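Pilot study result, target chain (219 residues):
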Amino acid sequence: MINGVNGAAIKMRAGEGAWQFFKSLVASFCLGFGICLFVECGLGSDPIDVLLDGANRTFGITLGQANLILNIFVFAIGMLVNRTAIGLSSVIGAILGSLMVDLVNPLVMSIDLIGQALAWRVLALLIGQVGLCCCYGIMQTIPHGSNISDAFVLWIASVAPGAYAFWRMAYDALCFAVGVLWGGVFGVGTVMSVLTTGICTRWIAAGVRVLDGIVLKRA
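Predicted structure:
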């Protein structure tokens, strides 16, 4: 009986690990796809993408490389202030996300979004925003797997007055300011992202937790 119980527990942990890894892959794809859509639609990137775009224009590095450098910088800070939210899953997610950006970007560029009708560009912008929020929301539900930037914002929200949504806007505003100084493109998409990312991320995280309960209960 003990062996049977242990076997069931091992099977359950394996199933949960596989599910969390699958979520990490989905989050990485959402991040890469979202970043590329924002940058290529030409309607203004989300604040972090303004930063990445500015780094691309100023230093000649790819969007994926810029994203990886940003994650390394924020990771160093995050390990000092909120290491409970950051773990191996965060590191894997950051690396996969950066690789996914450079993998997806040629495909998105081939669509030539900037040359499409405004309606299609707006649709791409909205899909990109949902993609980024899906990444942040999914990563928040992975144990020790928060998106590295998000882990930093969550720590600030836990020690300073103000809700997560407020500090997410403040963090985005900082990335935006640096990105603009480096020549990143901004516009209506930037404003939309600043105003909606925090709220949208919370909604998606809540939905994924409900899905977790359903999937893991069956595992």
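One observation from the pilot: Helices lie at 2-41, 47-59, 63-81, 88-110, 118-140, 148-159, 164-181, 188-218. A full batch analysis is planned for the follow-on phase.
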